[in-house]
Design a protein that fits this description.
Number of helices: 15
Structural class: mainly alpha
Largest sheet: 2 strands, antiparallel
Number of strands: 2
Order of helices and strands: HHHHHHHEEHHHHHHHH
Distance between the termini: 57 Å
Strand content: under 5%
Length: about 325
């Protein structure tokens, strides 16, 4: 009996280890979740832009981010200028995992890194954005030029990101230290670093600025939006039936958290299945897998504990 029980535990550990490796490969490009930029979180000479265990730390450590990433991409696609930049310059089709890893790297380094690491990461993203230019057809039918540095585009991307990560954490995460307004206010720092002129500071301001784009007729649906939606529907883990099924649940939940007026513009409907509840189960397994080893915030805590020592200077 003891041997059977021990074998069962070993099998469970093996399954969890396999899930963790696949998740970390997608999120960080490394099956152990410790590429050089994660290890660098333990380095640096200051606490960084965000307080330990503050609102940004809590939201970005929550497993609701698994849904938020999909939701943010869907929302960002509604702005024809932002979508044109992705369509013309992103390698998301050829290397979707690589693009995901690049985005995760930026979020993690800003949230948990020293100010020097965060600034280097922001500069890396900025250098790529300097090349992102082109033309797109706006919602009124006119042709416009765009640049990834356009104030409207960087603002929309920031709004869609902040709203998605906040909404998904409110649905599946734990309490936010200081509440939703504190998260929006803290993450405004990231917006400022990415040259957003006036990032929102409260949840109400965030939602009002988002709705302003819809009310001004800036957002639109076209064949490119439909193409992105089709692409995002397809699970990136096709070699694993269980991971593919989990992704389908997360996609359906991402859609469920988008307000109806935006869903309608995306051409999406809520699933009649209880996907929000099913997502709790998927995220519980995800959290267990990720917590089976060190996470990004653990490396950041090493830096913070080192800085607290009397000899830190």
């Amino acid at each position: 009996m003891t041997g059977t029980s021990g074998e069962s535990r070993e099998r469970r550990r093996g399954v969890i280890a396999g899930v963790r490796a696949r998740l970390l490969t997608a999120l960080s490009g490394d099956p152990d979740g410790t590429p050089a930029w994660v290890r660098e979180l333990a380095e640096g000479d200051d606490i960084g832009y965000f307080p330990e265990d503050g609102a940004a730390w809590a939201v970005h450590a929550g497993v609701g981010t698994m849904v938020a990433g999909i939701r943010a991409l869907l929302m960002q696609a509604l702005h024809p200028g932002a979508l044109a930049g992705v369509h013309d310059w992103s390698r998301y089709r050829e290397d979707p995992v690589g693009r995901l890893t690049g985005t995760v790297r930026w979020v993690i380094c800003l949230t948990y890194g020293s100010t020097a690491q965060a600034q280097r990461e922001t500069a890396r993203v900025g250098r790529f954005h300097q090349r992102v230019t082109g033309t797109y057809r706006s919602a009124d039918g006119g042709e416009r030029t765009y640049s990834a540095a356009d104030p409207e585009l960087v603002e929309w991307v920031h709004l869609a990101f902040t709203d998605s990560f906040l909404s998904c954490h409110q649905r599946w995460g734990r309490a936010i230290p200081g509440g939703a307004d504190r998260y929006v206010d803290e993450w405004a720092t990231a917006g400022t670093l990415m040259l957003v002129a006036g990032p929102p500071r409260t949840e109400a301001q965030l939602r009002g600025m988002l709705d302003g784009y819809l009310e001004r007729g800036i957002l639109r649906r076209d064949e490119r939006v439909d193409d992105v939606v089709r692409f995002l529907r397809r699970p990136p883990f096709r070699e694993s039936r269980s991971m593919s099924l989990a992704y389908r649940v997360l996609f359906a939940s991402a859609v469920a958290t988008i307000p109806r007026r935006y869903r309608r513009l995306l051409g999406l409907r809520r699933s009649p299945l209880p996907v929000v509840t099913a997502t709790r189960a998927v995220l519980a397994v995800t959290e267990r897998a990720l917590n089976a080893g060190p996470r990004s915030q653990d490396f950041a805590r090493r830096r913070l504990r080192r800085l607290e020592r009397p000899d830190a200077a």
